[in-house]
Design brief:
24 strands, six-stranded antiparallel β-sheet, Jelly Rolls, mainly beta, 2 domains, Immunoglobulin-like, about 5% helix, 1 helix
């Protein structure tokens, strides 16, 4: 059986007023050229202390909210390639990144969260639709819609996403706009479609509990926006402003993963907790060097295993089949 070991990563163990986290999705696992779109009906996934919401419709086999992917195909046009980022990888050539479509929430695990930045880009599906046009979306820069009729834009097209911050009672507190395409410049040489990972400044978003998103396009028809409403996300950076401590990461092994009925834990004695994607504890146990845990009562889905051992802490995603 494959054992996954978590090597201790030295962090300065001092009290601080700010603890910074970068959510890069690299703790998630996927087979090569694949994606997770919520088809297990878990309602989302958790990484880096952030819950990424997902709504999967079993009747239609469709989804909205967040997925994660390592798909590298950045040349195939159309809906069938909706899980690919146009750069062909994650930010800084990393493997895994997130995809959003039709909004949903991005929720933080604690209060007093300040946002710093995030890397955004177009998906391949949206980028090629805007660049070339398709059966539903127009070719950006053209004065005509997808049917070939004058759409009144004079080719001054745009596509952008608005990121809204909310406080702990749900009120919208601020927003940041990022243009994924802009063809409104007087000099057409300045028109652009985003095809690289671009760092977006989110430092104006403070005391955030969760984020929501909305899409805006110049290409609007009878049923709303014609442009495919997607963007890709990586390297979300935030900080907690509550007094916290940073510690060494706990060293432990967890296998098999995915698991069905039994999970084996090896490592320093500590208190282990298994959380579902809603953040609720579904199982607690202590281990002493090695423990076999009966997880047959857990429904199939995605979970987070967290351990506290003295002054060290560790976390890892668990998939139950």
């Amino acid at each position: 059986m494959k054992k996954i070991y978590f090597l201790a990563s030295a962090l300065l163990a001092v009290t601080t007023l700010k603890a910074q986290t970068t959510v890069d999705f690299e703790d998630l696992t996927l087979p090569t050229e694949s994606f997770y779109n919520g088809d297990d009906e878990a309602g989302g996934f958790v990484t880096g202390g952030v819950t990424f919401g997902n709504d999967y419709n079993t009747s239609w086999g469709s989804w909205s909210g967040f997925a994660y992917s390592n798909v590298t195909d950045n040349t195939t046009a159309g809906f069938g390639n909706q899980y690919s980022a146009i750069p062909g990888s994650g930010a800084n050539n990393s493997e895994i990144y997130a995809i959003n479509t039709n909004s949903d929430t991005l929720r933080f695990s604690g209060p007093h969260i300040n946002l710093l930045s995030v890397d955004l880009t177009n998906t391949t599906y949206t980028y090629l639709s805007m660049r070339d046009g398709d059966a539903f979306g127009k070719q950006f820069g053209s004065p005509n819609n997808a049917n070939g009729d004058d759409d009144g834009t004079n080719g001054e097209d745009f596509f952008y996403v608005t990121i809204f911050s909310h406080d702990n009672v749900g009120n919208k507190t601020d927003s940041v706009i990022f243009y994924l395409a802009d063809y409104r410049f007087s000099d057409s040489n300045e028109d652009y479609l985003v095809d690289t990972w671009t760092t977006v400044d989110l430092s104006s978003l403070k005391n955030v509990s969760f984020l929501t998103f909305s899409y805006h396009s110049s290409d609007v028809g009878q049923y709303g926006i014609n442009t495919p409403q997607y963007f890709a996300l990586d390297n979300l950076v935030y900080e907690s402003t509550v007094g916290l401590k940073a510690y060494d990461k706990a060293d432990f092994a967890m296998y098999p993963n995915p698991a069905e009925s039994t999970l084996n834990i090896e490592g320093s004695a500590g208190e282990y907790k298994i959380y579902n994607t809603s953040g609720s504890i579904v199982m607690e146990f202590n281990n002493f060097d090695k423990t076999s845990v009966d997880i047959s009562a857990l429904i199939p889905g995605v979970y987070i295993v967290k351990v506290a051992s003295g002054s060290t802490f560790g976390t890892r995603k668990l998939i139950v089949r």
